[in-house]
Amino acid sequence: MFRRWLILAIVILIYLPVAMDATILHVAAPTLSEALALSNKELLWIIDIYSLVMAGLILPMGALGDRIGFKRLIIIGSTLFGIASVFAAFSDSAMRLIASRALLAVGAAMIIPATLSAIRNTFLEEKQRNFALGIWATVGGGGAAFGPLLGGAILGHFHWGAVFLINIPVIILVLLMTIFFVPKQKVQTTQNLNLLQALILVIAILSIIYALKTGITAFNWMSITIFTVGFALLAGFIQNQFRSASPMIDFHLFKNRFISTGIIMAIVAMMALVGFELLISQELQFVYGYTALEAGLFVLPFMLAISCGGPIASVLVNKFGLRRIATTGILLSGLSMFGLAHTDFASAQLQAWGMMILLGISVQIALLSSTAAIMSSVSPEKAAAAGAIEGMAYELGAGFGVAFFGLMLSWFYMQSIVMPSDLPQALIPAVSSSIGEAMYVANDMDISLATQIQDNAKAAFIRSHRQVLNTSGILLMILAAYVWLRLPNPHRKDRVVESLG
Q1: Membrane-spanning regions, if any (predicted)?
Q2: Which terminal Cβ of the chain has fewer Cβ within 10 Å, N or C?
Q3: pLDDT, tens digit, for every residue of 382-412?
């Protein structure tokens, strides 16, 4: 009995830094931009490479765990995660930090299925297993939500690299506990890994996003070619999965409208959550002069709302049905975006916090509704495949959120920025690219010109922020209508309740 809960403690310890690293850099974006002289594209890659690489690798790493056992997978994944954390902490360029974050994602893609496998194989009694899974989900959601606050606290006292070094003591403790206290498991040596298909999926996703990020500032044949290659690889991957006897992703599940709708809800809800968190962290620091810690504290109501939204959502879904609650959650998320778009964070803090609380709860409702839609629509033997697809959708949503919000922000900022008349021609591309680069350029100008650059950049960012949130609100409204039409007949109540555990 004691060993079960000790294994759960190990699972929680290693899952916490994995969850936090998805969001801990959001509040550090301005600091990173200044310390490494980053372009906006480099900053976005540093942040979202983690989720995008993890999304493509998490399914085959689960199969690897079946072949070698979750103990070995935890050891290998934790070791990689620790090494990557050290590399990231001491990176002195954008490319090294991007590569380190990609390696972090490889380790994380091993750790997540290993922790779930550990719970599934350790807690054989259903009630205990559900309790352990509940703790696992709480740690994951709470870690991601409070990542920016921890990042802000660390940046207030230490070098930015410390946000990665805090992983090392946890990794060492987990490795020692795993080696000495976790028993070996039976393995399935015939399990298909699909590593080549996973690599093709990752390359396809990264190529498409790279082409979009490049095309926003320099639309040319190179960006068109890379996008075409990425799209072709993605199409080939999907075609291969349909024909494969043992696919990495069972796309036949997407024919079920509840599952396909749930996947879309999961991706969009995560995009809204992660994208908004990144955007507000930059605005608070660049525009309003908040420190990283002050920015983290400002968004604390949003984090708390996300953490507390799960129980509220489960009660509402059980009482009013999936269709109504899913649609309402997405609709309220859109209204929250509109409200935040027209809120002055400096003079109307209470209004900002109220809107953030509403957004946090409504996004969490949408996320839980997506889980209910997916898991209540499959047979027990398909539950693992559906759950794996949902997990990948969450990571894709996190990566797409950074890319989507970042691209929209860049586009609107470039359209809004007003250049000082005496700004040297060579500096215009940098100043018009992002507020971070504009602030960096201003540091080397005389006081008068620097003030103009900073004021114009802040004004452009505020206008861009409003346009991004308004656009997001419109898209969420469209999604709400789609979900209402797509889920015309609610599931039986007992199936929804079962899906919520």
Answers
A1: 43-61, 73-91, 97-119, 131-154, 160-182, 194-212, 218-238, 258-280, 286-309, 321-341, 353-375, 396-414, 468-485
A2: N
A3: 655 666 677 778 788 888 888 888 888 888 9
Architecture of domain 1-181: Up-down Bundle (1.20)
Residues whose CB is less than 8 angstroms from the CB of residue 166 and which lie 6 or more positions away in sequence, other chains included: 17, 150, 154
pLDDT digits (tens, 9 = 90+) for 213-240: 777 666 678 888 988 999 999 999 888 8
The CA-atom distances, in angstroms, between 221 and each of 97, 203, 235 are 28, 19, 21
- Buried-state track 350-378, b at ≥16 Cβ within 10 A, e below 16: eebbbbbbbbbbbbbbbbbbbbbbbbbbb
Task: Give the pair of three-digit tokens for residue 46.
Answer: 């540093």
- Classify burial at 385, counting beta carbons within 10 Å of its beta carbon; exposed 0-12, middle 13-18, buried 19 or more: middle
Nearest Cα to Cα of residue 476 among 263, 303, 254, 271:
271
pLDDT of 492 > 60? The answer is: no
Distance (Å, whole) CA 292 – CA 280: 12
| DSSP classification of residue 443 | T
Q: How far apart are CA 33 and CA 439, in angstroms?
A: 9
| Assigned token pair, 397 | 């949503």
User: Lowest-confidence range among 83-92, 130-139, 230-239?
Assistant: 130-139
- CATH classification of 250-501, choosing from 3.40.50.2300, 1.10.260.40, 1.20.1250.20, 1.10.630.10? 1.20.1250.20
Q: How far is Cα 448 from Cα 430, in angstroms, rounded to an integer? A: 18
Residue span(s) of the chain under CATH 1.20.1250.20 come to 1-181, 250-501
Residue 184, amino acid: K
